Amino acid sequence: MTRAPRKRLPAKEAARIAEIFARLAAFMPEPKTELDFDSPYTLVVAVALSAQATDKSVNKATEKLFAAANTPQAMLDLGVEGLIPFIQSIGLYRTKARNVIATAQILVEQYGGQVPLSRTALQSLPGVGRKTASVVLNELDIEPAIAVDTHVFRVAHRLKFSDGKAPDQVEADLMVVVPKDYLIKAHHWLILHGRYTCLARRPKCEICPIADLCPSRDLFI
Asked: Catalytic pick from 96, 131, 173, 185?
């Protein structure tokens, strides 16, 4: 994705956006992914498994999976058929199983069992697209990145940060408007805000810490 260069926003809008993130930072000082992991490898696997699935369902599956296989070689030893019983409660589990094993093989054969922590290398792995790579790089404090899932997409539109029709467009807009000091944590703030407060059908505007700064508030109260 080609990102637009950062540009100067109108002073009033820049102040509104800065205040939004200042409040989110005060409300959630240390936001983190809700996926369970203990290494770059288990993070990659967990994020890949989370596509079209809830973090809760993924954590339930990976608790047992990572106890049995938490390295690329151990995962490769499981094989597709050995992996499936651990993740068959997750959507698209057969495709995900094939991708996880194919990724494990690449990591063992090409990277000495280590996860390459560059965007290009990550996105070359089976089942690891831009969104997964962004989550991994951001979570490990390697690269400020904003992975646009359904929550981020919704919140970005309601707050008028973006009117993009596709995730890549929304990501490009967010990388422009989010103040630099907040970029590394913006991904988590927006996801968690969308997951627990700015809900799809009935946002909880009455308890929202940024409701007075939201241009969409009047649509829901």
From this structure: 131
pLDDT (mean) for 11-23:
97
Residue 6 in this model has a pLDDT that exceeds 60: no
pLDDT of residue 5: 47
Helix locations, 55-129, DSSP H: 55-68, 72-87, 93-111, 119-123
Could you say which of 149, 168, 212, 218 is catalytic? 149
CA 218 to CA 5: how far, in whole Å? Answer: 32
Res 37: pLDDT: 97
Choosing among 3.20.20.80, 3.20.20.70, 3.60.15.10, 1.10.340.30, the CATH entry for 40-139 is 1.10.340.30
State yes or no: is 96 an active-site residue: no
In CATH, 11-30+144-219 is 3.90.1010.10: no
Same fold, 11-30+144-219 and 40-139: no
Dist CA 28 CA 108 (whole Å): 38
pLDDT of residue 221: 75
Instruction: Check if 218 is active-site.
Output: no
